[in-house]
Amino acid sequence: MARRKRRSRAGSSAGLIIATVCLAVLSLGIVGAYGWLRYKASGNVAIDQASLCPVDGPKAETAILLDVTDPISDTTALDLRNQFQKIVADVPVGGAIDIYALTEMEGDLIQTFHGCNPGSGANVDEWTSNPRLAQARWEKGFAKPLQDIAGKLSVGEAGKQSPIMAAIQKINLEVFTNAPAGMPKHLYIASDMIEHTDAFSNYRDGASYQKFQQSSARNKFRTSLDGVMIKILAFQRPNMKFSMEDLANFWAQWIKSNNGDFDGFVRLEGIR
C-alpha cells in the first residue's frame, strides 16, 4: 500500500510540474503578444488633427501652383485633372501637399489646401489601429477636398498680370526653404507659363532668356531652389510669337539658374 501512495504522489507532482510549465509558457506567450502589440502600436505616427500631418513634421513636401488667371479649354482641364490626380496619388503617407492659386498680384497667392496624406484604411495595421476610422479620416480630410479642387480646375478669370516667377519665389520661401535636408521636395506648375509683369513680359520680350537677364526681374524674382524638383504642366495658347519649345527652354534656364532641378515640360492637350 505504501508503494501505491508513493506512485500517486509522484504522479501528482509530475502533473503539477507539467501544469506549471504550461502556465509559464502561456504567460510568456501573453506577455510576448502584448509586447509585440505595444511595439507595433509605438510605430503608429501621432498626427495633427487639423492638417493630418505627423506632429514631428511631414516626410515629404509637394506644392502645386495653379495658374487660373486665364480660362482654359475643357480638353486642357480634363488633361490637367488627370495629371493632378496622379500627383496626389504619388504623395506618400506622411507627405504634405500645398496647393496655391495664382493671382494677378505679385506674390499674392491663394492657398486652397494644406495637409498631409494620413494613409487610408489599407495602410494601417488592423491589430493596432482601426482601418474603418483611418479610411474615413483619409477620405474626409485628404481625398475629398482634393477631389473638389480637381473639379474646379477649369474655373478662371482673365487677369492683368501673370506673375509666375513671384509665385514660385513665394512658395519656395513658405514651403521648401525650411524643409529638413534630404527631404523630397516637388513643385508642379500648371500654367501657360507666360510671365507677364512690369519687370518682364513674355508678351513684350518673347522667350529670350538674354532679354530676361537684362531686365530687373532677374534680381527681383531670384530664389534658391536647391533640391526642389520642378515639373511644368503647360497650357497651350494660340497665336503666340514664340514656340512652346522656346518657352520650355526659357523656363528650364530660369529654373537651373536658380539651382532648381528641371523635371520636365509637359504640353497638356487642348488649346485656348
Any overview of this molecule?
Strands 3-2-1-4-5-6 form a six-stranded mixed beta sheet, with helices on both faces. It contains eight helices and six strands, in the order αβαββααβαααβαβ. The longest helix has 41 residues. The chain is globular. The N terminus is likely disordered. The chain is of the alpha/beta class. Helices cover 43% and strands 15% of the residues. Keywords: Membrane, Transmembrane, Transmembrane helix.
Keywords:
alpha/beta, 2 domains, 8 helices, globular
Order of helices and strands: HEHEEHHEHHHEHE
Number of strands: 6
Helix content: 40-55%
Work out the radius of gyration: 29 Å
Largest sheet: 6 strands, mixed
Spatial order of the strands forming the largest sheet: 3-2-1-4-5-6
Can you give the mean pLDDT? 82
Transmembrane segments: 12-37
Keywords: Membrane, Transmembrane, Transmembrane helix
What is the secondary structure topology, with strand pairs?
Blueprint: H1 2-42, E1 61-66, H2 74-89, E2 96-101, E3 110-116, H3 131-150, H4 164-176, E4 185-191, H5 202-205, H6 209-213, H7 217-220, E5 228-234, H8 244-257, E6 261-267
Parallel strand pairs: 1-2, 1-4, 4-5, 5-6
Antiparallel strand pairs: 2-3
Quick structural gist:
Keywords: Membrane, Transmembrane, Transmembrane helix. Helix content is 43%, strand content 15%.
